[in-house]
Amino acid sequence: MVRIGAFLVGLFFAGWLLISFLVGAAAYVSEPPQPTVEQEFHLNPKHVEFSFDGPFGKYDNRQLQRGFQVFKEVCSACHSLKFVAFRDLEAIGYNEAEVKAIAKQWAIKTPDVDPKTGEASTRDPVPADHFPKPFANNVAAAAANNNAIPPDLSLMTKARHHGSAYVYSLLTGFRDQQGYKNAKGEELLKEFPDAKTPEGLHFNPYFANLNLAMAPPLTAEGQVTYGDGTKPTVDQMAQDVAAFLTWTAEPKLENRRRAGLATLVFLLIATGLAYMSYQNIWADKKKRA
Amino acid sequence: MASVEHTDDTGLTGGEGVRRRDFINIAAVSFAGVGAVAVVLPLVDQMNPSADVLALASTEVDLSAIQPGQAIKTTFRSQPLFVRQLTDKEIAEADKVDMSTLRDPQTLEERTVDGKKQWLITMGVCTHLGCVPLGAGEGENRGEFGGYFCPCHGSSYDTAARIRKGPAPKNLEVPKYSFTSDTAILVG
Amino acid sequence: MSFPWAEHYAPKHPVMQWMDEKLPLPRLVYNAIGAGYPVPRNLNYFWNFGVLAGLALVIQIVTGVIMAMHYGANDLVAFSTVEQTMRDVNAGWLMRYAHANGASFFFIVVYLHIFRGLYFGSYKAPREMVWLLGLVIFLLMMATAFMGYVLPWGQMSYWGAKVITGLFGAIPVVGEPIQTWLLGGFAPGNASLNRFFSLHFLLPFVIAGVIILHIWALHIPGSSNPTGVEVKGPQDTVPFHPYYTAKDGFGVGIFLICFALMLFFAPNFLGHPDNYIEANPLSTPAHIVPEWYFWPFYAILRAFTVDFFFVPAKLLGVLAMFSAILMLFFLPWLDTSPVRSGHYRPVFRKFFYILLIDVLILGYCGGAPAAEPYVMISQVAGAYYFAHFLIILPLISRFEKPLPLPNSITDAVLAKYATADGESAAVPAE
Fold this sequence. Notes:
Number of strands of chain B: 9
Oligomer: heterotrimer
Strand order of the largest sheet of chain A: 1-2
CATH superfamily of the domain at 37-84 and 130-251 in chain A: Cytochrome c-like domain
Order of helices and strands of chain B: HHEEEHEEEEEE
CATH class of the largest domain in chain B: Mainly Beta
Structural class of chain B: alpha+beta
Helix content of chain B: 10-25%
CATH architecture of the largest domain in chain B: 3-layer Sandwich
Structural class of chain A: mainly alpha
Shape of chain B: elongated
Strand content of chain A: under 5%
Number of strands of chain A: 4
């Protein structure tokens, strides 16, 4: 009885799936799906090397500090960094006094309540505060940015595939759409005349749908002046800020890898011993007859 | 992991002493034990105050608005902090107390910063069982010694916040603080 | 129950004797996973995964209880409390990554455990109840994992909750009220988050309870073994302790090495980047996928694209997805071959490997975007999946001619050593 019922159920599901397949296949053959402009022209992030690549890579604090400078002078005007606190900057090589000064001089102030009147007010951030947001809320952010809300950057490099390279590629990937060709030599506007970047957006093949609300933020060499003498090319600034945002997304990366190495060494020895112990306990049972 | 922990009946403690075979078993079980202990460390440590809690471990207090005879109640490490400017009369009263009669002998000088004897900064936590004593707010009962009075079990503190009567064993705690200017202190 | 030759618990120390009279817990442990449980001597490494699944549950409960200490089950703060755990709590990143990857490893181990059972016929009489309880555990795990994935309140959490509860919306008439009831609102929100948190905390302990039943049911007939031949005498078994505790100790070591590699060096490999974006009810991610362990079932769900007369394709997909798991409850009565082990079933074995590849293909398609050719591939693979269990297995068990079985476990073991010495043997290699 069970088997008869099962046979009928199986026949139904399997049969209907095969019929669905035939229907789908017929449609696929008669009307093959047209490639979309994203499929043809979206690019995966460029290859870029960072000090933290690989299983034992470490952050380069000087690079992170340069990246922080780019964030401070360029990105922070529009983007928040809400999960990071000023005190966290000590991890990238600033001392307590420097962190305090950075917080105090931060252009955006921390919202507070006036202790006398109870009215909303602002004050200078202190190291314990998280980076204040440039806009009070999403409505304000959208209103000030042509209806696009600049995303928070704290986790950006973990929120995209190959995030560090993605941030770098995006920042250096703005192109003129007019005459843009992909690797196959197809010209975008000839293949997809409807895909012209709308007014107010900016063409960037590294962005998922190719058209980004953000205008190119890093436009000229020397946009920031590095204290350590590194030449601030657009490429350099993009790499540095990508490294900084990798750190903001994964501040415990070095702790994690250090702990991992110690754990693995321990486990390898322990497992080796466990194997020897296992062999030794089974020795008499595995004797040949 | 627990599965390898009972090795007794595999002959670990035979009369002939520990043999090489047994040594391997002992080593394997010991390693498992060390591993288990090492795992416990982060499991325990995660309950300690986190970095954001520790970051709030110091508080700045503005003294400019506190008149002699007044006190404010603020917070330090999520606990009440009493900041009081003593009047000359209160200072005199505190100074004339005989040390030998005190349960927890301390002079007002020892409880304040040099040259700032009028600024009495204490935790607002009764040393008996941790209630918040009355006396910092306007019009509150300050107890028979004119300092603070804990309503829970009737501990009375004097004008230097020293315990004078009731079950509390110690004076109100003076936290670590320093003057950052004439009218501001940094606690913690 | 146990075999008559099982070792008997005889505490020597007076304290243990006293304990044994008042509360014979040590006796229970001794008879369950100690020297008092005789186990076939020929178990291979695939028999390690039961213990490893238990270990994975322990890891999940310990790290989960800790995550709950730092978590705020409120839609306004859930995402940031998880981030704060990662950044500020001492060893918080370790707990979070261990919990997230621990879930994946739990499923890896359980899938291997299930396929072990499928190949070696562990579901057959007299162990049907062990199989049924195992499936209950699997269902509870899926529910727990799904609700746990909602808790960080990222984009995938939110949209996963919306899509999966939306499945119930496919049921005619009562569907939408059920969906609203499940969510406590018209879309995932604070009410959904709180109930998922509550149940996510509860269910692992229910799983632990069913695991006890699973082991209890296993101990009545005793463990199966790779030959599928029943234990005939004392020469066929060894005491669980120290023989299999030692072997499991080694297995645990290998498991922990794999786990540590993932946890410390690629903790986000199995996760989805979109879940690092806070939930946003106004914006759907481009490509919603569940966690990898649901992919085969997700592929079956999406494979139904054509309405069956008045039954909409969506409802068919939901029915098929649930049937894909629920039909496994009938497996002991579908596969009626008296031979258990795939070693001695040449036809069954071929189809088993096809099934294995089929499930991997379904998994791949389930994780891929809902576009061609993946939908067409999952239609064919899904058809095979149902046909395998509901049509092919009953037929094989009827018509297959199995290979000769060894007389006993000991015979098989001895033959294996003979093979190792270069002689021919009737037993295929593992």
